[in-house]
Amino acid sequence: MSNDLPPLPDDWSRALAIAAHPDDLEYGTNAAVAAWTAAGRSVSYVLATRGEAGIAGTSPEVAGPLREAEERASAAAVGVHDVRFLGHRDGVVTEGLDLRRDLAREIRRARPQLVVVSNHRDIFGPGTWNSADHRAVGRAALDAVGDAGNEWVFRELIDEGFETWSGVRHVAVAASPQPTHAVDVTGCRDVAIASLAEHRAYLAALDPRPVEEQAREVVLMTTGGEDGSARVSFEVFG
């Protein structure tokens, strides 16, 4: 389907990618990020949680710092060096005012023209239910884009030094079941695979196969398979 979609608008120089957990952005979106940074665009990441509840048999106290370190290494592999963690509790993220405020703060801080958000839809695709954290963060991020530009919403952010930002031109929803645009990521698969493979502890806990094999399978699946052009699709607003 992505071969039939128009390209994502390119009238921007700064992007902010928002997700619920470490590794969320590495399931295809990182290939687009690699293409953007290679073209000289600036990309920052904001993660609502540290993914501390994501490794079976590993306590949150151990998993949180481990997954944060893996995410920073993964982001660096695709040219992203500004990675922030909001500290919301993994697995029980609430779509409420606290999350909207935190995300609006980060949008005002980064001042992006493009915001990439988690899939907020109920599903990823047929028969695949989306997680509560993904839905909460995606929906709150969409609202926070508007909040960031409203001087009367979260007035305390101005007291903290974060002036309003209404410069977001486009919001791109990653892994949406209703894609409208695509990004050509030809030539970026290898770096995207290396990026996902940085989540070694997380992937090793999911599957006994070598981490690099898992990463390659995921990236090929999310960018179009072995043959043909490599593309990553998004649902774009604006």
TrEMBL record:
InterPro entries: GlcNAc_PI_deacetylase-related, LmbE-like_dom_sf. Gene3D superfamilies: LmbE-like (3.40.50.10320). GO terms for molecular function: hydrolase activity. The keyword Glycoprotein does not apply. Keywords: Hydrolase, Zinc. Pfam families: PIG-L. Its EC number is 3.5.1.-. PANTHER family: LMBE FAMILY PROTEIN (PTHR12993:SF28), N-ACETYLGLUCOSAMINYL-PHOSPHATIDYLINOSITOL DE-N-ACETYLASE-RELATED (PTHR12993). This is PIG-L deacetylase family protein. It comes from Actinomycetospora chibensis. The lineage of its organism: Bacteria, Bacillati, Actinomycetota, Actinomycetes, Pseudonocardiales.
